[in-house]
Amino acid sequence: MVKIKYLLIGVLIVILGIVIAITVSPSEEKRVKKQFHLLSEWVSKSPDENTFTMLQRMKDIGTLFDANCELKVTDQSLSGTYTREEISTYAGSARSHVSQLELKFYDSDIAFPEKGVAKVTLTARLTGRSTAGEQMDETRELECLLRKIEKKWLFSQIEVIEVLKK
Amino acid sequence: MTVRHKIRQFFFPSLTSKFLIRVSLIALFAYLFFGYLCIPFTIQGISMEPTYHNGGVNFCWRLHYFFSEPKRHDVVTVRFAGSKVMLLKRVVAREGEEVEFRDGKLFVDCKEIVEPYVRYPCNWNLPPRQVEEDSIYVVGDNRSMPIENHHFGQASKKRIMGVPLW
């Protein structure tokens, strides 16, 4: 009887340990999702954002990207490969033209086609207001490629899916 | 059983196992039916005016093209981003056909197509282009805006979600 009791306690401890391990150490999928969460947080802008926060966010946005990141969009003038610094500068410039901005991601589908590579298909919705008072509301499907470099998942390719081709 | 008791029983039924099973089955059916077969949606935008109005509510019937192919003049929902954002457009040409706009008039394989659903004046000009394999060409009914501002073009058949119920 005593043996069974100890055995049950042992099993419970093992189950508890597994549950804690799963909860505390995030999976690769969670790590990838976290990068999107950070991108969404840092791109978004509140109307009362001060200059210090703005500069900090510009710098932070760059840390999410690989040394070179490829952007594929329908508008050929925007497509190309950008460095981390260029992305920071462009993001800062774009954010300065809006008084309020919110970036949200939905329906993410994460796959790992090879080790250290994550392919994410998701919906991005950008809402806000320009400094001129114009409302913005854009939704697009994105296909992103992230690479694991020094234990960090970094954006290395972002493609805006063209649903309707004129 | 008195009428009062019956009314009471209708609004506040006893939580018997039979009742709980019935509720669970109804909930499951509603989830599957409205989540996958007959998806409710609200119309945002004026690209399908006057056939469909901004703010209107409709349902996307997903089984419509289960055994058939989209035909010219059909109104279809095209998956735009994720599983929640769809475009409501009209099919004007099918794979292999050549589509063109001349002074606001639609031409398919050099023949003018009569479109009674287009009520607003249109002056679009679009050079001829062939619809690729496994694709359809979709356009909105409201062509009163400049061609650059209207979201239309060739969409993959895989992106067709279904048809609006009404």
Tally of distinct domains of chain A: 1
Q: Estimate percent helicity of chain A.
A: 25-40%
Beta-strand content estimate of chain B: 25-35%
Specify the overall morphology of chain B: elongated
Q: Give helix % range of chain B.
A: 10-25%
- If strands are numbered along the chain, what order do they take across the biggest sheet of chain A? 2-1-6-5-4-3
Q: Total number of β-strand segments of chain A?
A: 6
Structural class of chain A: alpha+beta
How would you describe the oligomerization state of the chains in this entry?
heterodimer
Low-pLDDT regions of chain B: none
List the helices and strands and how they pair.
The complex is a heterodimer of chains A (166) and B (166).
Chain A: H1 2-24, H2 28-43, H3 51-63, E1 65-72, E2 80-83, H4 84-96, E3 98-114, E4 117-130, E5 135-149, E6 152-160
Parallel strand pairs in A: 1-6
Antiparallel strand pairs in A: 1-2, 3-4, 4-5, 5-6
Chain B: H1 3-11, H2 17-37, E1 38-42, E2 57-61, E3 75-81, E4 85-94, E5 98-102, E6 105-108, E7 111-112, E8 126-130, E9 135-139, E10 153-156, E11 160-164
Antiparallel strand pairs in B: 1-2, 2-11, 3-4, 3-11, 4-9, 5-6, 5-8, 6-7, 9-10
Quickly describe the structure.
Chain A has 166 residues and is an alpha+beta fold.
Q: What does this protein look like?
A:
- The complex is a heterodimer of chains A (166) and B (166).
- Chain A has 166 residues and is an alpha+beta fold.
- Chain A has one domain: Nuclear Transport Factor 2, Chain: A (Roll).
- Chain A has four helices and six strands.
- In chain A, a hairpin with a 2-residue loop joins strand 3 (98-114) and strand 4.
- The mean pLDDT of chain A is 89.
- Chain B has two domains: 1-36; 43-164, Umud Fragment, subunit A, CATH 2.10.109.
- Chain B is an alpha+beta fold and 166 residues long.
- Chain B contains two helices and eleven strands, in the order ααβββββββββββ.
- Chain B is elongated and about 75 Å long.
- Chain B has a seven-stranded antiparallel sheet with strand order 1-2-11-3-4-9-10. Chain B has a four-stranded antiparallel sheet with strand order 7-6-5-8, with no helix packed on it.
- The A-B interface holds A 106-107, 122-124, 139-141, 161, 163-166 and B 78-85, 87, 126, 138, 151-155, 159.
